[in-house]
Amino acid sequence: MSNELREAAAIVRNAAKIVVFTGAGISAESGIPTFRDEPEAHSGNDDTAGFWHRFPVEEFATWPGLIRSARQQPRRVVEFVHHVLAPIADARPNPAHHAISYLEQERSTTIVTQNIDGLHQAAGSVNVQELHGSIFEVVTRDRRPVRELDRAQLSRIAKRLERIRRGWLPIPRMLWAVRRWLGLGWRGLHLPNLVLFGDALCEPDWTRGLAAAEACDCLIQIGCSGVVLPAAMLPLAAKSNGARVIAIDPQPTEADIWLSGSAAQVTPQLVAAALSRQS
Ligand code: APR
Fold this sequence. Notes:
By secondary structure, this protein is an alpha/beta fold. The protein contains twelve helices and ten strands. It is elongated, with a radius of gyration of 19 Å. The chain binds adenosine-5-diphosphoribose.
C-alpha cells in the first residue's frame, strides 16, 4: 500500500462527516465519456474522447445554441442527443460507485455529484445531491416534476435515435421519438431536468451540497477536472473549514492527497483500507 493511500485511509477512517464529490471521471469506466479528456487519452479513439471535443460547448451545451444548431445542422443535433442518451442508458455502476455506497452505510456520507447518470443511486447510494440534474427526470420550464423515465425507456429512445440520425427529416422524427422526454404536454413544454451552461444549479441539491462541504472533515473528490464553477468551489469550501481533501484521478489534481489512478481501481482500495480496521 502506498504512503498516500495509507494516509488517506486514516483520514477517511477517522472522519465523522464525509463528502464524496464526483464528476464524469467516476463514470468513465461505466462506458460514459468524460467531457474534456483529450482524444489521445483514449488511444486516439475519438469515439470515447471528451464530449466537448466532439460537440462544441457553444453549439450544444446551451439551450440557445441547441436551437440554433437544430436549424443549421439538424443531423448533428440528433447525433448529439443520441450520444448523450445511449451511453447512460446502457451504463451500470462500476466498483467505484459500489465502494461509495458501502462507505455511505458505514460513515456519515453525503454524495455531491455533477453527473446526470443516476449511477450512484443505481449502486444503492441514497444521500445524493445532483448539482447538474438528472437525465431521467422530466420537468416543466420552472423545474416542476412531470415524470421520471427509467433506464429501459431511455435505452428505447436511444435505439430509435440511432436509426433516425441517418435517415430523412431528422428533427421532426427525433422530436416524435423523444416526446416523453422533451416536448409539449398538457403542462406546456417539458424537458429533461438538466443544468446547461448559464443555468442555475439544481436546488435544494446545491444548498445541501455546499452545506455538507462546509461541515465535513473529509472531502473525497473523484474524477473532477475542477474547471466548472460553482461546483468546483466545493473542495475549497471544505478546505476553508478545516477539512482534508483527497483526490482520485489519473491526472495530477490539486488536493491534500492525490491518489493517482482510475476511480474503479483506487476507490475500492481506499474504502477497504479505511474501513478494514474497524476499531
Ligand atoms: N477515473 C477517475 N478519473 C478519471 C477517469 C477515471 N477512469 N477518466 C478521466 N478522469 C478524470 C479526468 O482526468 C478529469 O479530471 O475525470 C475528470 C473529467 O473531467 P471533465 O471531463 O471536465 O468532467 P467534469 O469535471 O465532471 O466536468 C464538470 O462540466 O461540462 C460540464 O456539466 C458538465 O458536469 C460537467 C462539468
